[in-house]
Amino acid sequence: MANAFSEVKGITIQHFIIIHKVEKIKELLLYDELNLTEISYRLHYSSVAHLSNQFKKITGLTPTFYKQLKSKRRKNLEDL
Q1: How far is CA 27 from the centre of its chain?
Q2: For 22-32, what is each residue's pLDDT tens digit?
Q3: Range 2-79 has CATH code 1.20.120.450
Q4: Residue 6 has pLDDT above 90, yes or no
Q5: CA 1/CA 25 separation, integer angstroms
Q6: What's the pLDDT score for residue 78?
C-alpha cells in the first residue's frame, strides 16, 4: 500500500502526513487561540522543538515568524 501511495502521490505517506499537520499548524497559529505547546500536544508531537523543526523543514520559516508575518499582513490589509 505504501508503495502504491508513493507512486500515485510522488511522496511517502509519512511526508504526506507531515505536510497536512503543518497546514493544520498554520491554521491554528492564525486563529491565535492556542500557544505552540498546546498545538504540539493536540497534533501529537513529542515536543515543541519537534513541531518547530518539521514546520521549518516544510515552510522554511519558524512557527513564530510565520505567525508574525501573517499578523502583519492581516493588519496591513485592515489598514487599506
Answers
A1: 8
A2: 999 999 999 98
A3: no
A4: yes
A5: 27
A6: 74
